[in-house]
Amino acid sequence: MKLKIGIAGISGRIGQRIVEIINSNDNLEVSCGLVSAYSKYKNDDFPVSNKCQKSDVWIDFSTPDAFEIVLKHCIESKTPLVSGTTGLSKKHFKEIENAAQTIPVLWASNFAISVNLIQNLLSKYTQLRDSDVTITETHHIHKTDKPSGTAISLARSIKPHGILKSVKEDEFLLEDVKIKSIRDKEIAGIHQIELENKSEIIKISHSAKTPKIFAQGALNVTKWLLNKEHGIYTMNEYIDSLS
Ligand SMILES: NC(=O)c1ccc[n+]([C@@H]2O[C@H](COP(=O)([O-])OP(=O)(O)OC[C@H]3O[C@@H](n4cnc5c(N)ncnc54)[C@H](OP(=O)(O)O)[C@@H]3O)[C@@H](O)[C@H]2O)c1
Q1: pLDDT number for residue 167
Q2: Class of domain 113-207
């Protein structure tokens, strides 16, 4: 039997990549899609609307508003949820914690394994060497949230309890970690991290060559999450399961 996957944000940049990958896999099937009430997206192969329908699992790459809809549906229908939607608030993360009482949930700001490994490296290094850190994120001009969820997660790997503050339109501080945002053309996502202390300067750069990396990453995680008990799961736990 094919795994029936609901996709929130199905008409979007990442949603469409997820559909492509599912369509090229004999064991997977798109069951339905969630879009806004104003969407122009049409599809004859599966139902698409502003409401969620029962699926084996839901994958969400949408907006904070749509995230609320899909999370509520997943709790009510006891369906596992994988979400990559960024721009979520504290309230949303609290809702994820509540949902985890009944369903398995994994939210990640970045589904590229490499970015999560970079986060671990930053966390470890800055515990050993106090450093000045600047994170510069560059994304396509359609991206609505700023700074990127990945930039915030990278900064939080250094200052876990830091509160994000806006300094200028495109400049932010998470405690003393500086974050700069650039919006340019159709760039899938570049994150550059520079660390400096008395002894060394370290520069780390990650460029997504295609948004497909996030879609494939989310699908891989979905298969792993599927039969788990209720609870909150992380990319680190998924990565650990690979070795
Ligand atoms: N975690 C990661 O690895 C990762 C990677 C890339 C992107 N992201 C995040 O994923 C999200 C989506 O990115 P994207 O580039 O695919 O965005 P996008 O192209 O703008 O797509 C947004 C999708 O959300 C739908 N949507 C908007 N408002 C909605 C509502 N009120 N109810 C239901 N659906 C609604 C849109 O449908 P219609 O417009 O057709 O209504 C569209 O399908 C963003 O938060 C982005 O930052 C995460």
Answers
A1: 97
A2: alpha beta
